[in-house]
Every structure is written in structure tokens, then in C-alpha cells.
Amino acid sequence: MKIRQKLLLSYLIIIALFVAAGATITYSAERVSALQNNVKQQEEINDNAYTYQEGFDQMEFGTLMYSAYQAQEGEQILSTAYADTKSQTFLVNALASNPALLAQFDSVLALSNNTIYPEINQIVSIYNSNLDIIDKDNQIWNLMTSIMNATNQGDAQLAVIRGEIQTNVQNANDAQQSYTNFSIIAIVAFIGIISAVSVTISVVMGKRITNPLKKLATVAQKVSQGDLDQRYYLKQNADPKKGDEIDDLADAFKKMINAFRMQEALLKEDEGKENK
After folding, report:
1. What is the pLDDT of residues 207-244, one digit of tens each?
2. Domain locations in the chain?
3. Cα–Cα distance measured from residue 129 to residue 78, given in angstroms and rounded to the nearest whole number
4. Which DSSP letter does residue 75 get?
5. Burial, 13: exposed, middle or buried (Cβ in 10 Å; 0-12, 13-18, 19+)?
6. How far apart are CA 95 and CA 42, in angstroms?
7. Which residue in 150, 127, 148, 130 sits closest to 139, CA to CA?
8. What share of the chain is helix, strand, coil (3-state, %, to 5)?
9. Kind and range of the H or E element at 259?
10. Crossing angle of the two packed helices 133-224 and 99-111, in degrees rounded to 10
């Protein structure tokens, strides 16, 4: 293989390592970005679950205001709780990918729609009715007991939902951190590999080129001093036989030495004839 081809192959190896490193970095960046988006999504789900649970608990508190004959304060609290439909809609859509959590959240919605909301409306109607205070208190308290039981049940289910969502947030954060650390290690490893390969190629190629040239330079020096037996040394020690330009140069040296030896033999032959 010619020296140019060896250098080209070495260059292609280094380029391939750079391409692999670039592809790894690109993939890692995309993966980290996807994990960051997952973290944000899980945090958003957690925030909406917290907001919904606050509104859920406010319904009970607002109803208690009615039972305490503070209708105006109760109405304000209930209107705020009823108006919070954004977090409910968001959670229904976000939990669609998790059937188990969605089923639990649907059961909370069922408590709200089938028990809490209707009984709150009954309490408001009773509060505004013409019943005497004792009857109002009895009926309102019975309904409040049912609402509190339903609210406690819903709170327990929401706590489970929020607990799993918080676990998902933590897992997403851990996955992001883990992959970020892996990406850093991979990048450092590629830098180390590329550096090591580059240095190794430089040293090996340098030795394969310079060592034979040094030997050939030694042969040339000896030949210049009249030592024409260097062809044997050249054959055994300075002839790399790599099929490259240095091999061609060694062959040229051998031909040159042979030519010098033939010329020297002819000169000796002519001198012998003259002496006769």
C-alpha cells in the first residue's frame, strides 16, 4: 500500500470517529431534550393535579360556609371552585396515556358529578327555603356529612394520583440526569478515543516512514564513502518490503549500488589490461 493511501486511510479512520462522535452528540442532545420535555410535562400534570385538589377541597369549605349561614362567603368560594375546569380538562387529556390513573381520576369526577355537586345544590336550595332553622340545620348537616365523606374519599384517591405523578416527575428527572451523565461520559470517551487513535496513527506512520529513511540514509552515507557492500545490509535491514514508495526507493538504492559495483569491476578489468 502506497504512503498516500496509508495517510488517506488514517485520515478516513479519524473522520469516521469524528462522524460517530457527532452522531452520538446529536442523538444525546435530542434524547436529553425529549427527557426535559417529559420532565416539564410531568411537572405540569403535577401542578394541575394540585390545583384541582385545592378546588375539590374548596367545595367542601364553601358548603360549610352555607351551613354556618355565611352564604355570601360560601358562594364566592363555590363559584371559584366551579370555575376551575381548566385543570380538570388538562388532567383528563394528560392521563389518557395512563389508564390506571385516568380510571382513578374518573372516579373522583364521578363523586363530584353524582354526589358532591347535587348535594351542594340541595344545601343551597334548603338554605334559601322557608323551612324553620331546625329542619334546615338537620337536612344541611345530613347533606354535609355525605359531602365530607365523598370529599375524603376523593381526597384519598387524588392523593394516590398525585403520589404517582410525583413519582413520575422524580423518575423523569432521574432519567434525564442519568442520560445527561451518560452523554458526558460518551463525549469524553470519544474525545479520548479520537486523541489516542490520532496519536497512535501519527506515531506508527511516523516510524514506518522515518525508520526506513534513516536506514537508507545510513546506507547512502556508507556508499558515498566507497562501501559498496551495503546492498547486503540494505537487503536485510533497510528493505521494508511494504509495497510503498520507500520500497521503491530501496530498490533504486540496490540498483544504484549494483551499478557502482559493475562500474568498479569494469575499472579494475581495464586497469588489469593496462598493467599487462
Report:
1. 777 777 787 788 778 777 777 676 656 655 554 556 66
2. 3-195, 197-275
3. 19
4. H
5. middle
6. 10
7. 127
8. 90, 0, 10
9. helix 245-275
10. 160
